[in-house]
Design brief:
The complex is a heterotrimer. Chain A contains 2 helices and 3 strands, in the order ββαβα. By secondary structure, chain A is an alpha+beta fold. Chain A has a 3-stranded antiparallel sheet with strand order 2-1-3. The longest helix of chain A has 19 residues. The two termini of chain A are 33 Å apart. In chain B, a hairpin with a 5-residue loop joins strand 1 and strand 2. Chain B has one domain: Up-down Bundle (Ferritin). In chain B, helix 2 runs antiparallel to helix 4 and helix 6 packs antiparallel against helix 7. Chain B has a two-stranded antiparallel ribbon. Chain C is mainly α. Chain C has a single domain, classed as Ferritin (Up-down Bundle). The longest helix of chain C has 29 residues. Chain C is globular and about 55 Å long. The chains are: A alpha+beta, B mainly alpha, C mainly alpha. Chains B and C meet through helix 2, helix 3, helix 4, helix 8 and helix 12 of B and helix 3, helix 4, helix 8 and helix 12 of C. Chain C: This is Ring-1,2-phenylacetyl-CoA epoxidase subunit PaaC.
Chain lengths: 104, 314, 290
């Protein structure tokens, strides 16, 4: 049975996918993952999830964010200067996401 | 962990669902998150009619997207609250419907005209975003993670609101006058967004001590006024003489508390203020009307889990 | 149609007067349907059964608004602007089917899903019939619109399967089908007999309305019957006329400008702020699509 492994570098970070292990059950999967995926990279926590329990939708099946113009969802579209630093920070993140979407 | 240990360890994103946290922490965090999540829902409730009333197709699209985001924020925040193990999402949504769930003062008032929309979409959202940016450092990791995504989206909301305000204040004389009237009405409520001055706030000390909050109400109110007061003036809005706002030499502001209606504020805080009561009930009505759908989904879930499927014996 | 094969219209300049009228009618059908359907969908925002379904239904509404925007943009090439396309247009100049203007009874999520399903299948079939339209600005936009329709169809069918698996749900779905089916038939009514003939003759749309309707009816009834929902039969006259017998259609067709009273009150609500502010323009915040 295959278990997908998600690692968190340090407390407060997100768990991100880092690989998988073959194991007969959850306990063994954790033991294997601890060494296979946690022995060198900084690790605060690991999650293991049975591969078959993971659902997936990808760009073959889905048009994430749609195919028509949805620029109204992005701060950059609005013709005003950001009012505050947190608005500016958000606009930067949104614009970056919009740019990456455009490249995809 | 006991309370003292929790206080000692408290730092940004320190605690996650696997930590053994004292009940006081779990309850305080739940109260904060539930309030925040409820506010997203009731804010969306207020703004929804303006999807229909928006005076251009693209404004309509933007309003729909904004209300959609707010419900999305509610979804994130209820999850972050649920993970404390105190209340389920269903319980929180039911409490909101029954008038037991608390939410932001501004969302207890009716929102009737298009010219009022930037009062929420710019000023209240701007105030909320100021506060939310600081909550990225909350000690409850799921709260901070929810804030990452919420703040990512919120820049659109504030700019959308400001764009509407700018358009109205550069519009016809009639539009400008109507907008000024709306501002006069909303300004005191907006000033109350951050609550009374710190010494009157009952839950603050503990929430700050365990790192759930990182800034005081006064600090947040100051930061908000520093940015948004000049913005209001820039668009030609006149700041009402009352409530009096004194600017100190160090760039901070004092709002004269006696000029604000705290009786109304605390009536609202108890969910006893009339327009707010109607809004709570309006939402309850809508929620009840689709209970049959949730029941059908629950049934499906039970079948999927192998519980009560008629085919289970096959 | 042989004549249509070698004729293609790159822009409005290439159209004669009859063709101009036909293209505009075709665009009004498309745009008005999307606008009014989306307007009704947005009623579910903050009222949907769960937070997740709220967010996804809102998305579908925004998709449809985006499609309306795309089609209205083409109409601007004919000298229209948004104020006369939407905000200052008379209610009886709108060409949408009366299916999309019907109000939702409170909590009738089955209506929303059934309506979405009946509409989305029709739209899917119709868009495919436009993929080879002789009018390029339409042809060029079909792909973008179709790109978002797969999700809509999948969403509606998934919901229908789940609702129909539940006793109360199935009853509500059946009620909605019984009530909405006649209105759905108006999707395939012409705005005007002659104009419709031009649409087909000049290859603006690859199939005529009867062909579209038959394909739609077969697809819709196959699926709905598979989940235990009865669908009214289509009693076509022997001659297989353009029209189905009038008693299968509702009193108001929409396509010809004759709407139910619900439409006028909906349009009043939509234009309330525009009128209150005394506006004579509609704000654009996005760049025009190429």
């Amino acid at each position: 049975m295959i278990w997908e492994v998600f690692r968190q570098n340090q407390a407060g970070d997100y768990h991100t996918h880092c690989g998988n292990v073959h194991a007969p059950d959850r306990e063994m999967a954790l033991l294997f993952a601890e060494v296979q995926h946690g022995r060198r990279k900084p690790t605060n926590s690991l999650w293991v999830v049975p591969q078959e329990e993971i659902g997936e939708v990808d760009t073959e099946d889905a048009k994430f964010g749609g195919t028509t113009n949805k620029s109204y969802r992005f701060a950059r579209t609005y013709n005003v200067e950001p009012a505050a630093e947190e608005v500016e920070a958000s606009e930067k993140e949104l614009t970056e996401a919009e740019r990456k979407r455009g490249e995809a | 962990m006991n309370v003292e240990e929790t206080k000692a360890r408290a730092s940004p994103r320190e605690f996650s669902p696997k930590d053994d946290l004292p009940e006081e922490y779990r309850k305080a965090a739940t109260r904060m998150l539930e309030f925040h999540a409820n506010s997203e829902i009731m804010g969306a409730y207020l703004e929804r009619p303006f999807i229909r009333k928006a005076p251009s197709l693209e404004r309509k699209m933007a309003f729909s997207a904004k209300v959609q985001d707010e419900i999305g924020h509610g979804q994130l925040l209820y999850r972050a609250a649920e993970s404390l193990g105190v209340k389920t999402r269903d319980e929180m949504l039911d409490d909101l419907a029954e008038g037991k769930g608390k939410f932001l003062n501004c969302f207890h008032y009716p929102l009737e005209s298009w010219v009022e929309t930037p009062m929420i979409a710019f000023f209240v959202d701007g105030a909320a975003m100021r506060r939310q940016a600081t909550l990225k450092k909350s000690s409850w990791e799921p709260y901070a993670h929810a804030m990452d995504k919420i703040c990512f989206e919120e820049g659109f909301h504030v700019k959308h609101g400001e764009s509407i305000l700018g358009e109205l204040m550069n519009g016809s004389k009639k539009e400008q006058e109507m907008t000024q009237e709306a501002f006069d009405k909303w300004w005191p409520r907006i000033l109350q967004f951050f609550g009374p001055t710190d010494d009157q706030s009952s839950h603050h000390d503990f929430a700050a001590d365990v790192g759930l909050k990182v800034m005081t109400n006064d600090e947040l109110r100051n930061a908000f006024l520093n940015t948004y007061l000049p913005k209001a003036k820039k668009y030609g809005l006149e700041i009402p003489d009352e409530p009096r706002i004194r600017e100190n030499d160090d760039g901070t502001y004092d709002v004269v508390e006696d000029d604000l209606d705290w009786d109304e504020f605390f009536t609202i805080a108890k969910n006893d203020y009339e327009p707010g009561v109607g809004q709570i009930e309006g939402r309850k009505h809508a929620q009840d009307a689709v209970e049959w759908v949730r029941n059908a989904l629950d049934e499906q879930e039970a079948i999927a889990a192998g519980g009560q499927s008629p085919q289970a014996a096959d | 149609m042989a004549a249509a094969d070698d004729a293609t219209f790159a822009s409005t300049d290439d159209l004669d007067e009859t063709e101009q009228e036909a293209v505009q009618d075709l665009l009004f059908r498309l745009a008005d349907d999307e606008l009014v359907l989306a307007e009704r969908y947005t009623e579910w925002q903050v009222r949907a059964p769960t937070l997740e379904s709220d967010i996804s239904m809102a998305n579908i509404a925004q998709d449809e608004l985006g499609h309306a925007r795309l089609w209205y943009e083409v109409l601007k090439d004919f000298g229209h602007d948004e104020t006369d396309l939407i905000w200052e247009r008379d209610a009886d100049d709108f060409r949408h089917s009366t299916l999309v203007e019907q109000p939702f009874a409170e909590g009738d999520w089955a209506d929303a899903i059934v309506r979405a399903y009946l509409y989305d299948v029709a739209e899917d079939i119709q868009l495919h019939a436009l993929e080879n339209s002789t009018f390029e600005p339409i042809r060029d936009r079909v792909g973008k619109v179709l790109g978002e329709e797969d999700y809509h169809l999948e969403y509606a069918t998934n919901w229908l399967e789940r609702l129909a698996a539940d006793d109360e749900g199935r009853e509500n779905v059946q009620d909605a089908v019984d009530r909405l089916y006649p209105y759905a038939l108006t999707l395939f009514e012409p705005t005007d007999e002659e104009v419709e003939a031009t649409i087909v003759e000049r290859g603006l749309r690859g199939e005529d309305l009867v062909e579209l309707r038959d394909t739609w009816h077969d697809r819709v009834s196959d699926f709905l019957e598979s989940i235990g929902i009865e669908v009214p039969g289509l009693d076509l006259p022997d001659q297989y006329d353009v029209h189905i017998s009038p008693d299968e259609l509702p009193e108001h067709l929409g396509r010809d400008g004759d709407h139910t009273d619900h439409w006028e009150s909906l349009l009043d609500e939509m234009t309330e702020a525009y009128d209150e502010l005394g506006r004579d323009y509609a704000t654009h915040i996005m760049d025009d699509d190429e």
